[in-house]
Hints:
By secondary structure, the chain is an alpha/beta fold. It is 43% helix and 15% strand.
Amino acid sequence: MRVLxxxxxTDYEPQGIMYLSSALKAAGHQVDLVVATHRNPVExxxxxxxxxxxxxxxxxxxxxxxxxxxRIKREVHGLFSVFGGPHPTFFPEMVKEEGxxxxxxGEGEEALVELVxxxxxxxxxxxxxxxxxxFWRNGDRGEAGIITNPVRPYVADLDSLPFPDxxxxxxxxxxxxxxxxxxxxxxxxxxxxxxxxxxxxLSAIYRGKGRRFRQRSVGHxxxxxxWVRDHYPLEFVxxxxxxxxxxxxxxxxxxxxxxxxxxxxxxxxxxxxxxTEEQVRLLKDAGCHSVSMGIEAGNDRxxxxxxxxxxxxxxxxxxxxxxxxxxxxxxxxxxxGLPTSTLADDFETLDLNIQARPSYAHxxxxxxxPRTELGEFTREHGWMxxxxxxxxxxxxxxxxxxxxxxxxxxxxxxxxxxxIGVEWPRTVPLIRRLIKLPDNPVFWLLNKLxxxxxxxxxxHPVKLSLREVAETAWHFM
Length: 477
C-alpha cells in the first residue's frame, strides 16, 4: 500500500509522523511525505497516487487539513483519508466531517499498520474493527453511523519501536536536513495533571491500558543520536520530552554514558518542583547547555488553583537559582490571557520572570484546547467566544476569550514585549503605556529580533554561516 503523509509545515522534525513512517515501512508499505511550504500537496498526491492519505492535526489546523483533504480526494480516486494527532484524539466528532474516512485516537504505530494491512487485505469493510479507530459506514455520518473502537494498550516497551524515519522529513525539507540542531524524544507521557495540557485527558482514554509515563533505555536513545550524527549534520541536540528528568536513575545513567558516547551539548525540559542541586550537577556533567521550565503564571491562585501546577514562587525562584549557579542557561514558558485573569495578573507573571532571570522568557496567549480541563472550564463558564474552530494555529496569535477589545489589545502587545521586559526591567513602565496602542509590524519585528538573538546565542548556541542564519530566520519568521 502507498501512504502519503501531508504536513502544512515542519518547523521541527514531526516525531509522530516519523515514528509512523518507520512502522509502516517495517511492515512493507511505501511511504512518502509532502510539506505544503515546499510543494503543492494536491500536485504531490496526484503524482504519488496514494492509497491512504494521513494527516497529523493539532487544534487550530483542522480546517486547513479538512479543506486540503477534500481537494486531494477530487484528484485521487478511491483514496482512504485518515486523521490522527491531538485534535482527532480529543475531538473524535471530526470523523463526521466530509472527506474523513477514519480518525485515530492515541498512539498510532500499531493502529495505523493494522489499518493499512486490513485495507490491503480486505478493503474498507475489513478495517471497521481495528482498535484506536473511529469510522463511519453506509454513508451515514450521523451518530448511528459512527463506529468507535476502544484503544489498545500503550506501547510498553518504546525500545521495540524502530527509530523515527528521519529520511522521510529530511528528503522533503532540506533546511531541516542541513540544520545542525536536531530534535529527539526519549519517552512518552507525563504524570502531572496541569489543566491546560492534554495528558490528563489522554490518561482518561487509556485508563487501565498501561503506564502513562514510559521512557526508552539510555542505550537506545544514545544509539539514535549517534546514528543521526553519523548521517546528518548535528552539533546540538534538543530533547523535546515534556519533562526530561522524571527518573533520577535514568538521568544518572545518561550522565555517565552520554558524554563518552556522544559528547554533544543538549537542551531539555525540567520542572521547578523537581530541580535539585544533584539534578543540575548531573545535567551539567552530561553536557547539558540549557533547560526550560514552566512558570506559567505569577499569581498563586492562577498557577495552583486554575492551572494545578502545585508549586510555589519560592520553589520557582530556588530552581532558577540552582540552575544559574550550576552553570546552565534556562528559558521559561508562560501564559497570559487565562480565564478569570486580568492584565494585572499577567504583569505579575512578568515580575516573577524578572526575579527568576531566565536567558529567555517565552510567553503565549492562552488557547482553550478541547477536552482539556481548562478548555472545558473556559467553554462551560462562558469565557470563550465562538467555538474551538476559531482557535488559531499560533499560541501567540490572539485570544478567543470573552475579554473586551482593550484587554485583547493589551494581551497582544504584552506578548510582543514580555521577553524584552524580563531582560530589561526598566522598560516595564514603558510597556504599561505601550499596551494601550494598536499592534503593528514594528512591535512584531522587535519581538522576533530579540527572540532570535537570545535563542541563537544563549539557548542553542551553534555557529552558523550567513546562509544558515538567513535560512533559519526565514524558516521561523
